[in-house]
Specification:
The protein has 15 helices and 13 strands. It is α+β, with helices and mostly antiparallel strands. The longest helix is centred in the last third of the chain and has 22 residues, at 273-294. Helix 12 crosses helix 13 (234-243) and helix 14 (273-294) packs antiparallel against helix 15. The chain is 42% helix and 24% strand. The radius of gyration is 23 Å and the shape is globular. It binds magnesium ion. The site of magnesium ion (MG) has 5 residues, from strand 1. It is found in: Cytoplasm.
Length: 373
């Protein structure tokens, strides 16, 4: 066992886990600075449609809200009891997606492989020339500061020899944290933490562990294998491996994208829509090029405008048929820019984002002449 540990821990792989801090709530607070320091939660749309507190469930809670014990997956009715002054905002998925895409694009510049596991979380494999933990930490600092500068939100990074430890490390100091766990530090780092810190160990499993006298990851590392297997089964064995610093799962490039988007930064910022639309045209071409490479058709176009004051407006339009026609894409994107900008004619624009989604694979015979422009 010890030998196995030692072997795993001398592996040279360095893995990073990046987690945006209370993501949805952070984006909302960024765009509405008055909400800073207030207990803010983002809730599913249902609540706002029905205005019925028995229906809403929290999707994200700001740090001040967490101080009241509010957390994601908590019913709003319970949240209101704990914190009567809670401010509940509706989900703005398009906006979060746009911020997430931008963050991933920044991360991609610095690393070799990005495995996005959710809208606000990714595992990362560093470039081959990053050989030490110091260099990895330096890379993390660059990613953190570029995301903070571009999106004005913070993220927390964990760096470790494997995925589980990297994820546990990123949860260790939040928000805006960076935790580095070198191979020789893994067991010492994990040992005092509660077993619930292991990804996948929920309330139920923790209760079973508790019955076996296991509270910390260190307890689990030393526990009797057979007993764990009997009570928890194969997943119990996997949790025990993680407790011993063993996790050979790989960082995989995120599978087929569900959307393709590109952004364009205006420099200098401008409210001249002719200039903005020229930028839009060039990113439509980039999006189209990727569609052709991937042999994809789209049905939905999303356009986002980010203003110099960091407020953002987005709009999505779904069409009746799938297409990859570039003229169609450009024309609709430009119309949508006009519609979005109409209410803010004097505000300077900082960035535009154009994306397509609702994608469908196609074969070459279905393509149209305009697909090849
Ligand atoms: Mg997060």
């Amino acid at each position: 066992m010890l030998f196995e540990n030692g072997e795993n821990m001398t592996s040279e792989k360095i893995i990073m886990h990046i987690d945006m801090d209370s993501f949805f709530a952070s984006v909302e607070i960024r765009d509405n600075p008055d909400l800073r320091d207030k207990p803010v939660v983002v809730c599913s749309k249902t609540f706002h449609l029905h205005k019925d507190t028995s229906r809403g469930v929290i999707s994200a809670a700001s740090y001040p809200a967490r101080k009241f014990g509010l957390h994601s997956a908590m019913p709003l009715s319970e949240a209101k009891k704990l914190c009567p002054d809670v401010i509940c905002l509706p989900m703005n998925k398009n906006l979060y997606k746009q911020v997430s895409d931008n963050a991933v694009k920044i991360i991609q510049k610095y690393v070799k492989t990005v495995q996005q596991v959710s809208i606000d979380e990714a595992y990362v494999l560093l470039k081959d020339d990053v050989k030490t933990y110091e260099e990895a930490a330096e890379c993390a600092r660059k990613i953190k500061s570029e995301i903070a500068a571009a999106e004005r939100i913070t993220c927390t990074v964990g760096i470790a020899p494997n995925k589980s430890v990297a994820k546990i490390a990123s949860g260790y100091q939040k928000p805006d944290g960076l935790t580095v766990v070198r191979p020789e530090e893994v067991l010492g780092f994990l040992s005092p933490l509660p077993v619930t810190k292991i990804p996948g160990v929920g309330k139920k499993t923790a209760e079973t562990f508790d019955l076996l006298g296991i509270q910390t990851i260190g307890d689990l590392a030393k526990a009797d294998k057979r007993q764990i297997y009997e009570k928890i089964g194969r997943s119990g064995m996997a949790f025990q491996d993680i407790a011993n610093g063993i996790d050979s799962s790989q960082v995989m490039e995120t599978a087929d994208a569900k959307s393709i988007s590109r952004f364009y930064s205006l420099n200098p910022y401008t409210n001249d829509l002719t200039v903005v639309k020229m930028g839009a045209e060039s990113i439509c071409e980039e999006v189209h090029e990727i569609l052709i490479q991937k042999k994809m058709f789209f049905k939905t176009i999303t356009v986002g405008i980010r203003y110099a004051d960091f407020t953002t407006v987005t709009k999505s339009k779904s069409h009746t048929v799938h297409t990859s026609d570039i003229f169609f894409l450009k024309r609709h994107a430009q119309d949508m820019i006009d519609e979005l900008a109409a209410n803010n004619a004097n505000k300077k624009i900082k960035q535009i984002n154009i994306g397509v989604s609702n994608l469908k694979k196609t074969d070459v015979s279905q393509m149209q002449l305009t697909d090849f422009f």
